[in-house]
Design goal:
single chain; 132 residues; alpha/beta; Oxidized Rhodanese, domain 1; 5-stranded parallel sheet; 6 helices
Amino acid sequence: MALRTLFSLLVALPLFVAAQLSGTLPMEEFKKQLAAKKGLLVDVRTPAECEEGIIEGATLIDYQGKDFMAEIGKLDRERPVFLYCAAGGRSRQTMTRMMSMGFKEVHDLEGGMEAWKEAGQPTVRMGSGSKR
């Protein structure tokens, strides 16, 4: 019995540690952490949504694209990842899925692009500050 408990703890520990390093962040904290950690910024909105503007430096991965999770799986699991979508729902779901895939640190922007714009933060046109 003790061996089974130990095994369960060893399996759960990486997920617990990842959960401690990950989470939804309010806009100011998201911006601060992104700058401090030099993480990868990922926009999971659709191309049509991105035409309205993106956060400079974002990599675009369409949540509704047929290869969405395959593209997410190509990202560096050791590097901090910062996600956002339009309002926060899709990025939160993506964060949860990435943590179960073994990503070490994942954050999503609370309120998404709506919160970013409401705070008066800058955006750029898709293609001028984005990566595909």
